[in-house]
Amino acid sequence: EKSIYILGIESSCDDTSAAVICNGKVLSNVIANQEVHAQYGGVVPELASRAHQQNIVPVVQQALHQANITKNDLSAIAFTKGPGLMGSLLVGTSFAKSLALGLQIPLIDVNHMQAHILAHFIDNETPKPPFPFICLTISGGHTQIVKITDYFSMEILGETIDDAVGEAFDKSAKILGLPYPGGPLIDKYAQLGNPKAFPFSKPQVADLNFSFSGLKTAILYFLQKEQQKNQNFISENLNDICASIQFTIIEILMDKLKKAVKQTGIKHIAIAGGVSANSEIRKSLQNAEKHLGWKTYIPKFEYTTDNAAMIAITGYLKFLNNNYADISTAVKARLKV
Ligand code: KG4
Ligand code: ZN
């Protein structure tokens, strides 16, 4: 049996990543994080493109090196076509095209949001969900409940009408004076706090859709009011505030997932995307498995936030179907699953 080596390249936001997958197994998954954005409280697109430009070649070289192969062993190159930041996408896409052209091997375009979901199909890792399953995809740019009937047959059942969950975490963190990205920090402080300390009301949104912009405003007003009474309110209550914010967000997500299960009758439930790294959403799913009879699929930690292994596995699944991209393919900042 011939070994199929796929190089995956991810550059949609602020992480430059390259990975090599052999017959569905990850051989390497190198990620260069861009620290430059922390001081600005969010990703600065112009700076992200420049950092990708600096990182892309060394990151790919390292991925090949760690996989113990050379570029001549590659069967195809998969890259993120979108959605994402235009300038960031262009760096990975142009590099992938040039390399595929030079090596005379197929080029495969990958939808970043599909890839977050298809990370569940990396070999020898966590159990693979059977079709059909429901995936709650939660990242810095998206919040979706998706029904997956086959690898490339996906339907969005609900999504956010304003901010994404990751944004809700990051913007709340910013109000608390925490650096970007604040999601992981809220998670960390929340573990030491009381989730019922400060109740925040949940939004009323129809169907399987979400809204998070009201919560952000509610948190802002609450903190302003408390700080007028006590200047040190945030520092004295940081753990409880973080736990309360996180508790509210996770409840909003779980309520909609329960609704999706009821509506579809599907009890195979996966999570994906950067926010699926959150310890509380992971616990909540495990609880649902025990108490609600769901079968849940939680990605390995390193495949939750942006990474190229998920791009490479999606590329591999497309490669098996001879589903290649034309060399003239263009990036798309907006792209549906
Ligand atoms: O999927 P991702 O790496 O990038 C996008 O495609 O957006 O997701 C990044 C988001 C950020 O908003 C970050 O704060 C959030 O995922 N995040 C977390 C945690 N780890 C990452 N949010 C809450 N708890 C975490 N542990
Ligand atoms: Zn992502």
From TrEMBL:
Gene name of the record: tsaD
Gene Ontology terms: biological process: tRNA threonylcarbamoyladenosine modification
Highest taxon above the source species: Bacteria
The protein's required cofactors: Fe(2+)
Annotated PANTHER family: TRNA N6-ADENOSINE THREONYLCARBAMOYLTRANSFERASE, TRNA N6-ADENOSINE THREONYLCARBAMOYLTRANSFERASE, MITOCHONDRIAL
PROSITE patterns in the cross-refs: GLYCOPROTEASE
Protein name as catalogued: tRNA N6-adenosine threonylcarbamoyltransferase
GO CC list: cytoplasm
Residues engaged in binding Fe cation: H112, H116, D306
Assigned keywords, A-Z: Acyltransferase, Cytoplasm, Iron, Metal-binding, Transferase, tRNA processing
Annotated NCBIfam families: gcp_kae1, T6A_TsaD_YgjD
UniProt EC number: 2.3.1.234
Domain Gcp-like: 25-312
Family matches, as HAMAP family: TsaD (MF_01445)
Function: Required for the formation of a threonylcarbamoyl group on adenosine at position 37 (t(6)A37) in tRNAs that read codons beginning with adenine. Is involved in the transfer of the threonylcarbamoyl moiety of threonylcarbamoyl-AMP (TC-AMP) to the N6 group of A37, together with TsaE and TsaB. TsaD likely plays a direct catalytic role in this reaction.
Note on how the cofactor is bound: Binds 1 Fe(2+) ion per subunit.
Organism (species): Polaribacter gangjinensis
Pfam (any one): TsaD
Enzyme superclass (EC): transferase
